[in-house]
Amino acid sequence: MDVTCETMSQIATYKPLSIVLLLLLIISFFGIPMLIFLIKKIISNSLYHINTRIILITHCIFVIAHLINRILLHASDLYRFLIIYPNKNSGCDILLNSTNCLFYRLIFNYGIWFSGTTAPCIIIERFIATRYPTSYHKDRKIGVILTIVQFFGTVGILSMTYFGYVFDAGRYYCMTARPHRDMINSVPLITVNVLQISSFLGLFLLKKYNLSLKSSSSGGELTKRYQIEETLRSLRTLKLPIKTMFISQMIFTTITFYYQRYASEINQEFFFAFSEAIVLLPEYSIIFVFTFVKIENRINIDGITSLKQGMDIDPDTYFKQYKNHW
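^ that's the sequence the OP posted. Answer follows.
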């Protein structure tokens, strides 16, 4: 038997790969309606600034796109391995076309990198809100601008991921990650790691700064204090989801970086199975929804009361502010 055909046969009959694909397919299937539910919840919640909502909703949409692409890919691979291959004489009968693989996995990969750049956008948006507390409530453009920058930034990251993509005669499995890649292929991994670490630190610093503003502006303008409360609420709600994204992205980027260097020493069946398993977006989608809703519900119990107490100041303060405008 031809070496290529034999290798394809080994991959098709490798049970751990089929199990991983089936589990991820099931998780992705449940993740989609949960994210749709979260999108509706975010849209209807006016306590989040419109710019924050735009960023979060776009994030959910691209994670959903990733999950849909993942379901189609994994279902196709399982069909090849479990249905087509047993009825064929050779593994070469189920080889894939490299050109088709490029497009089959495009949305899949785009969703990975787009989701990895969401946390920095949220931190930047909340930083701008903190920087301009008295006028930011009127802004409706920052969310759109940040999303556009994120969109094209992700295109750039994805371009580096596909740099040096080889259009060979046949593929065992549709996957961009390959051993001995050029250094430029590692730039996306390093970039996302830096962005995730910066976002994690930014979350802490932004919360600390807004708490200090809150304590020092008890008699300040109503719009300014409301913006501070809105930022603190957003950061509190998104703290755990951002941590979840941080952990999942760090696991993915770190292991992928290592595997790109040493994958030639690992058998291909295990490499494909493990490479799929470390892309944690399906698991993240479910954890993200659960943590977001849980924390939001907890905040809703005491958030409105706390906000009213924070706004409850001596009416004479407003008269003084009114006089100052004359």
